[in-house]
What does this fold into?
Amino acid sequence: MRRNTVDRIGDPSLRALAGLASAVAVAVILLLAYKVFDGSGSAFSRFGLGFVTAKVWNPVTNQFGAASFVYGTLITSAIAMLFAAPLSIAIALYLTELAPRRIRRPVATLIDLLAAIPSVIVGLWGILVMVPFMVNQIEPALHSVLGWIPLFGGSPSPLGLLPAAAVLTIMTVPIVSAITREVFETVPGDLKEAAYALGATRWEMTRMVILPIARPGIVGATILGLGRALGEAIAVTMVIGGAVAIKASLFQPGDTLASRIASQFQNASGTVYISSLFYLAAILLVISLIVNIGARLLVRRGVPAQVMN
Amino acid sequence: MSATTESPSPRLLGASPRRKRVNRMMELLSSLAAGLAVAVLVIVVGSVLIKGVSALNLSFLTETPAPFGVAGGGIANSIVGTFLLVVIASAIAVPVGLLIGIHASEFARPRTSNAVKFALDILSGVPTIVTGIFIFGLLVAGHQQSGYDGSVALAIIMLPIVARSAQEVLQLVPNSLREAAVALGIARWRMVLRVVLPTAAGGLITGAVLGVARVAGETAPLLLTSSIASNAVSWNPGQALSSIPVTIFTLSESANPADHARGWAAALVLIVGVLALSVFARSLHERSRRRLRG
It folds into this structure.
């Protein structure tokens, strides 16, 4: 009898609690969007949409604009993807087609572990180990060979867009390659065997069977990596130099939206200043939502969701 | 899926030398790429190990930071702070995430659970610095920073990881088990607690541990919500708590080489913790997957 009473309460309670938890998840994302836009209100009413294209960031005169950070965000993430995408495809190919079976699992695990390294540690390594190496070795070499391209013009400097892009590449390769690998594994084996039976080499099979079938997945994986790169704050802020500038040279310091928020927030005072940082967050939120939703629509086919978190 | 791992090695009897050369080159390039990724891991972890070990000793773990200009000192306050922040964040995110998983697998209609999954996917795509500024606007603005604020920010970052994996894992529990339990006359909520959750326990713990590993190293949201902390060891989440990631960040900004050494040692403590959690979660995941898939 007692048991029945408990069950009469227990069933609907569990159902209600579970439903409530799901509602909380939806409410959090809505509240987050509302709060970020609400916080940027006073900067928006003062600067309007012109904030996005204004290149100024001056707390003394209370003039703020996002243009140089939007530029820095886009250029560093784009360069990171330029390296991360081919690298990830190659890694996925190695792990699905080339590697001896015994070492597939261990190598995949090692690359996955790279994704688990906290960004602040990648940043620490970036500024204390990678940056000195880059400014002494890589940047002079790039400059002497490719100096005629504006991207590699100007003198090498320790902090700048290029180290930021390098750090972002390191952080996104594990994510992009994990998803690409999953996509490659869904390519039907009989199609591959058919290509081999026609006399294709392994590379020809890859080019004519795997890559065409996996293309939407690869694009989705890359865009998902792009989403990570756009929003990374700490590792970038440690190596990018924090300058308000739009310079063609990748050696020069710049800043990204996420990095600017992270580096300025503790010192920010005054309504307009803080509200402008919220405005940066709102721009970043809009960009990363578009990128993430687009990527997920592309990848959705045949990829377990667990890989994507 | 097994077919892909069994793919035959082509013998290339009829292939021209040029085609063979291209093939060799591409194979070489892709092996190099994998080697490069592993090398980067080895170099990053190796740097932290080598530079961290020399500055690491017992007093580094048990003492609070030394005053400016004084040698020695440790990060006891940050270790305690990170511990508290992560425990409180887990206390929020794990039950909520578990309930979301239960909702999807036991109660919700497919359309509802797809909508929730979509919301969680969006949430996991939100940059953590934006989560930080959100919690700043919601809880911190007008007050002091506090450990609770930082924990809530971490919980929001953790929630999609825990909830999505709970949804996946609970869906793997065979329906025959549920039906058997219900056929024996047991109430649904008891069936969930006694049959469904224990069956999926391994996978559920994996999700929670991965979530903990992820947020233990988060810096950006804490910078805005729990970073202006005292150097004393504090067990009171009502005040701002120091944390290992924020401490590493602050030390890295310093011009003093001694601070860099402390930063490496703190990074070593953090990386050992985070990688140990990840490896643990991974082995747990393998085991529970084998059990559920049979």
User: Anything to note?
Assistant: Chain B touches chain A through 111 residues (CB under 8 Å). Residues 14-55 of chain B form one domain. The longest helix of chain B spans residues 17-55.
